[in-house]
Design a protein that fits this description.
This protein is α+β, with helices and mostly antiparallel strands. The protein is built from 6 helices and 3 strands, in the order H-H-E-E-H-H-E-H-H. GO terms for molecular function: ribosomal small subunit binding.
Amino acid sequence: MPRNEKKTGQSASPRKLRVGELVRHAVAEILSQGGVHDPVLETHLITVPEVRMSPDLKLATVYVMPLGGKDEKPVLAALEQHKRFLRGEVARRVNLKYAPDLRFRIDERFAEAERIEKLLRTPAVQKDLSGEEET
């Protein structure tokens, strides 16, 4: 199930998706331009694949992944440390009534995709995919 769908199967509103994309672009731009002066963040390239907004648009869950998947905990700690600065920068770049509070999470989709790829490359699955039957 995609992250933007509720457990009831309803999809996210277009406004939540649009605001999430605006916040994602703002955070990615701030991080790529070196707007945060932190030794950990300055030495890592960080991707921001998704931002999920709460229904009232006051909370943004920002999914991040350091390039290569290394040093996730120090990067997450540095982002949490500079959360207030990032919130202010997002407020300046995105025109909203309230600046959303930022919550940072590591994006697990890359690890999950790698796990599925490894599973698909196993001999048992390859045998099933090639159409060979065991008798």
